[in-house]
């Protein structure tokens, strides 16, 4: 019996084509809550950008920043997993040697960017967000950094995570950049924090996702659903593949499993 369902945002709840939540998905969320099934967000977005995308919808809790920050519908913190300061210091030195490489730092309800390039602009256009304020990388010192976004290709991962951000790992859903969080955090870890808070068993859960950072979540929950617009390797991690976000994929899967 499904008691809780977790939803990614970009490419799952929100269409990359229309940048809106389809009406069928809005109706599905409303019907789920009427049935007493708890609905949660599980996203790589920080709180402020999450609210921009789905702030007009009701959820029972939020797993944000790929599990690094989890909180209730009333914005009561359940869990924070910050990047260690020693990693921040190494990254400050690394960025001085590689000034062409932009980084975004997320802390509290704010974020900032070290500098802007075409990759930053392309991702901002893709998910319809404003580009953060530009500040010196030293601004990250002595802050509770919950996530870093690094605009570099995957071939740089070994160097950066082997020598600089040694206590962190990437959650990549686009080739131009990686969401970077403290090792041990993930959407699946955030889900566990949420389930413990609400007293729900993992076997009674379902999740919907479409990106690489959704793979741990899709494998972890009782039933992992990949969107039809997900890449083949993400679909391979799921228990079921539904139609795309623009083809009423969420409603289709919920009807398939007789939840709605």
From TrEMBL:
GO cellular component, one term: cytosol
SUPFAM superfamilies: HAD-like
Name under which the protein is recorded: Cof-like hydrolase
Pfam families for this protein: Hydrolase_3
PANTHER family associated with the record: PHOSPHATASE YKRA-RELATED, PHOSPHOSERINE PHOSPHATASE
Superkingdom in the source lineage: Bacteria
Organism ancestry: Bacteria, Pseudomonadati, Bacteroidota, Bacteroidia, Bacteroidales
NCBIfam families (UniProt xref): Cof-subfamily, HAD-SF-IIB
Any one Gene Ontology molecular-function term assigned to this protein's record: magnesium ion binding
């Amino acid at each position: 019996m499904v008691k809780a369902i977790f939803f990614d945002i970009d490419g799952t709840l929100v269409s990359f084509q229309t940048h809106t939540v389809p009406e069928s998905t809005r109706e599905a969320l409303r019907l789920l809550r009427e049935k007493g099934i708890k609905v949660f967000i599980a996203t790589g977005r920080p709180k402020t950008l999450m609210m921009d995308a789905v702030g007009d919808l009701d959820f029972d809790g939020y797993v944000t920043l790929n599990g690094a920050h989890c909180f209730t519908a009333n914005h009561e913190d359940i869990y924070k997993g910050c990047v260690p300061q020693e990693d921040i210091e190494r990254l400050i030195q690394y960025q001085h040697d590689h000034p062409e490489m932009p980084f975004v730092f997320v802390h509290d309800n704010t974020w900032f960017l070290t500098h802007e390039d075409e990759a930053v602009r392309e991702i901002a256009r893709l998910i319809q967000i404003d580009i953060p304020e530009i500040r010196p990388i030293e601004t990250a010192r002595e802050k509770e950094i919950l996530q870093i976004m690094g605009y570099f290709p995957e071939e740089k991962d070994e160097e950066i995570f082997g020598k600089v951000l040694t206590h962190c790992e990437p959650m990549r859903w686009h080739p131009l950049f990686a969401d970077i969080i403290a090792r041990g955090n993930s959407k699946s870890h955030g889900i566990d924090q949420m389930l413990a808070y609400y007293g729900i068993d993992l076997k009674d859960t379902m999740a919907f996702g479409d990106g690489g950072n959704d793979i741990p979540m899709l494998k972890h929950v009782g039933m992992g659903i990949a969107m039809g617009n997900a890449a083949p390797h993400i679909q391979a991690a799921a228990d079921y593949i539904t139609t795309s976000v623009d083809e009423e994929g969420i409603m289709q899967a919920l009807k398939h499993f007789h939840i709605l």
